[in-house]
C-alpha cells in the first residue's frame, strides 16, 4: 500500500471495492503514515473490527493484525524497507541478495528459521482468550485460504504451526501468481520447495498430496519466471520420491519443455531411468505415462 489514504467500501469509487451487503459504501479508511498504519471506521453501519474487537474510531494496526470489514478480513503484512545487500552463496559463490530465500543458481538455502517474504517474518500471533468468543472472527482469510489464528488441529489433536504457516504462505503465493508477480511468488515458495526436495533426497518423502501441491507451484514458477531450474526440480523430486508424474503434469511439462527450450537432459534422463527400473510393476496406464516421459527425454536430448 502506498503512503496516504486507502478507502475500503462497497462503492466502485473506493480503492478496494467489496461486493458485500454488510459493507457500507465508504466503510473504512486505512492510512499509511510515517509513524505507522491506522484504520478508521468511516461511520459504517456494521463497524470495523481489529483482531475481533470492534473499534470506536481510529486504531493503529501492526504486522499480522486482522481487520474485519463486513464478511471480509484483511491481514496487514509489513515488509521492512531495507537495502538489498549483495553477498555470495556459500555453496557455489554466485551473487545473491538478502531478500533471496535460496540461491538462484544452485538452490542452496540462504536463510534459516521462519518462512519469510522479502525479509518479513510470518509468525502467527496467538489468539487472545476473549477473541475466541467471536468464532466468526477467529480466522485469517487471504484470497480464499482460511488460516486459524489458533493453531489448527493435526491428526493427533496437537496444533501444527508448520501447517498454519504453510497455508498462509500458499495464500500469499497464490495472490502473487494471480497478479503475475512471479519473482515475489518465487521468494515466498522457493525455500519451502527446496526443503521438500532436500528431505526427499534423504529418504523423508512427503505424502502424495504434498508432492502434487508442490509440483503445481513449481510448474507455475517455471512458466512465470522462465527459469528451467524448476523443471529440474520437478524431475528430481519425483525421482527421489519414486513416483510417476500424473497425466496432467506430464502434459504441462511437455508444453513447458518446448516453450522454455529446456535442455536439462541430465535430470530428465535420470528420472526416466529410475522409472524404467520400476516398470515391471506398472499398470497399463502407468506404462503409457512412462512412454510419454520417454518422449520428453528424446525431445530434450535431440
From TrEMBL:
<feature type="domain" description="FHA">
    <location>
        <begin position="6"/>
        <end position="55"/>
    </location>
</feature>
<dbReference type="InterPro" id="IPR000253">
    <property type="entry name" value="FHA_dom"/>
</dbReference>
<protein>
    <recommendedName>
        <fullName>FHA domain-containing protein</fullName>
    </recommendedName>
</protein>
<dbReference type="InterPro" id="IPR008984">
    <property type="entry name" value="SMAD_FHA_dom_sf"/>
</dbReference>
<dbReference type="InterPro" id="IPR050923">
    <property type="entry name" value="Cell_Proc_Reg/RNA_Proc"/>
</dbReference>
<dbReference type="Pfam" id="PF00498">
    <property type="entry name" value="FHA"/>
</dbReference>
Amino acid at each position: 500500500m502506498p503512503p496516504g489514504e486507502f478507502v475500503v467500501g462497497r462503492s466502485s469509487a473506493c480503492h478496494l471495492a467489496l461486493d458485500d451487503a454488510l459493507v457500507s459504501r465508504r466503510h473504512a479508511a486505512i492510512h499509511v503514515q510515517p509513524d505507522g498504519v491506522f484504520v478508521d471506521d468511516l461511520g459504517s453501519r456494521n463497524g470495523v473490527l481489529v483482531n475481533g474487537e470492534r473499534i470506536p474510531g481510529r486504531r493503529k494496526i501492526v504486522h499480522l493484525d486482522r481487520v474485519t470489514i463486513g464478511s471480509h478480513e484483511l491481514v496487514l503484512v509489513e515488509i521492512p524497507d531495507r537495502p538489498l545487500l549483495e553477498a555470495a552463496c556459500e555453496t557455489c559463490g554466485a551473487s545473491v541478495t538478502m531478500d533471496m530465500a535460496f540461491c538462484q543458481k544452485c538452490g542452496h538455502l540462504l536463510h534459516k528459521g521462519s518462512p519469510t517474504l522479502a525479509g518479513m517474518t510470518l509468525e502467527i500471533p496467538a489468539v487472545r482468550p476473549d477473541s475466541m468468543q467471536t468464532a466468526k472472527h477467529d480466522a485469517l482469510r487471504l484470497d480464499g485460504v482460511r488460516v486459524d489464528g489458533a493453531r489448527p488441529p493435526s491428526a493427533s489433536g496437537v496444533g501444527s504451526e508448520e501447517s498454519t504457516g504453510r497455508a498462509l504462505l500458499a495464500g500469499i503465493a497464490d495472490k502473487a501468481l494471480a497478479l503475475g508477480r512471479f519473482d515475489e511468488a518465487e521468494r515466498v515458495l522457493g525455500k519451502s520447495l527446496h526443503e521438500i526436495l532436500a528431505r526427499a533426497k534423504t529418504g523423508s518423502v512427503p505424502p502424495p498430496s504434498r508432492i502434487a501441491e508442490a509440483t503445481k507451484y513449481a510448474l507455475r514458477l517455471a512458466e512465470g519466471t522462465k527459469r528451467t531450474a524448476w523443471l529440474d526440480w520437478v524431475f528430481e523430486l519425483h525421482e527421489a520420491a519414486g513416483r510417476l508424474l500424473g497425466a496432467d503434469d506430464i502434459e504441462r511439462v511437455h508444453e513447458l519443455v518446448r516453450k522454455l527450450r529446456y535442455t536439462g537432459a541430465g535430470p530428465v534422463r535420470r528420472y526416466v531411468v529410475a522409472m524404467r527400473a520400476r516398470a515391471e510393476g506398472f499398470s497399463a496406464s502407468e506404462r503409457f505415462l512412462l512412454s510419454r516421459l520417454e518422449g520428453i527425454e528424446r525431445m530434450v536430448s535431440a
